[in-house]
Amino acid sequence: QIAYKYELEIPKLRKWNKIKKDEINIGQRLYIKEPKTTDIPKTKNVIVPVVKSGIHLVRKGDTLYSIATKNGISVAKLKKLNNLKSNTISIGQKLKVK
After folding, report:
1. For the segment 56-66, what is each residue's pLDDT rounded down to a tens digit?
2. pTM for this model (two decimals)
């Protein structure tokens, strides 16, 4: 999902982050573009929040529609999964997507 969201090839994402398997950890920081040197501070890269599978952490700019589309579900299904009565979501909110 991270590679798809940032339009990256999975092998590149793995290489840049020295990941051998498909598993990443909650809170793990990932490079989403190739680091120039190993001395680059992590603050110069976008930090992608990693949460449990099936959960989406709402970030600035997210909408129910964008979250639903990225996860292959309808807005109605997303709202039902999360018992949402309105279309209002908040940054930092965790939404079930599966």
Report:
1. 888 888 999 99
2. 0.49
